[in-house]
Design brief:
17% strand; 105 residues
Length: 105
């Protein structure tokens, strides 16, 4: 992808992914890579930030004999996701309006 993705948009994507189903880091990164070229070294600090902010909680579960850390969304994470969703829709509509020639100053 040519367009850069902000850390705030990555936060929104993470929250929406985890809201659908608890997920582990690699699974989250592979889903985000469908839209953005990010590295795990970018993703994990954002996951940590979301956890520290109280938007995500974590738990470990054994998978094929190894511990896997899963992320789960909290109620405040769902509220943050709704706020970010509103911001995304506004941003997307503005970009679409400019591209389609409906918005001009």
């Amino acid at each position: 992808m040519y367009f850069p993705v902000s850390s705030l948009l990555i936060e929104y994507l993470i929250l929406t992914i985890v809201e659908t189903q608890d997920s582990y880091g690699y699974e989250i990164s592979q889903t985000i890579k469908l839209a953005a070229d990010i590295k795990e070294s970018t993703l994990y600090p954002i996951l940590k930030k979301l956890e520290k902010s109280g938007y995500l909680t974590t738990y470990t579960q054994l998978y094929q004999g190894r511990k896997r850390k899963y992320y789960s969304i909290t109620e405040s994470g769902k509220q943050q996701m709704q706020l970010l969703h509103q911001e995304w829709v506004s941003y997307r509509d503005t970009i679409d309006g400019i591209i389609e020639g409906r918005l001009r100053k």
